[in-house]
Design goal:
The chain has about 140 residues and is α+β, with helices and mostly antiparallel strands. About 45% of the residues lie in helices and about 25% in strands. The chain has two helices and five strands. Strands 1, 2, 3, 4 and 5 form a five-stranded antiparallel sheet that branches.
């Protein structure tokens, strides 16, 4: 009976340790996600401040940051051409740097006067620069 009790205590201790480890991992992941969202918002705001023709805009909404591997180089070029044609921006000089297969993205809604603009901003894998953006309906 004594061996069963010792084995049971060991198993209970192991489960307890795994549970504590899981809580720590989930907490760290949540903190990293918040930092990524904060950084993405900062990068997008700097991009808008630098490139919008109309400097008075109000951001209404930022989604959570997510990632994709589905955006090809040719699609990046199409989005850049469409952004240039939309008329909201000055002559955008996108940051240069190594191309990445993974892009992070964040959906943004902002207002200029009485017009609401919805766009998805695609950022590099380190969330340090805007690679392109898409005008959403």
């Amino acid at each position: 009976m004594r061996d069963y009790a010792n084995g049971h205590n060991s198993l209970h201790g192991a489960i307890s340790s795994v549970a504590r480890l899981a809580v720590v991992i989930i907490t760290l992941a949540a903190l990293a996600s918040c930092a990524g969202n904060r950084e993405a918002k900062k990068v997008v705001k700097e991009f808008l401040d630098t490139n919008l023709k109309d400097e008075s805009y109000d951001t209404e909404y930022f989604s959570k940051v997510d990632s994709t591997f589905l955006i090809s180089d040719s699609l990046v070029e199409v989005m850049r051409k469409n952004t240039k044609a939309c008329g909201l921006f000055r002559d955008i000089k996108y940051s240069e740097g190594g191309k990445t297969k993974k892009l992070n993205f964040i959906m943004v809604r902002y207002r200029i006067g009485d017009k609401t603009i919805r766009q998805t901003f695609y950022l590099d894998d380190k969330t340090t620069r805007v690679v392109c953006l898409k005008n959403d309906a």
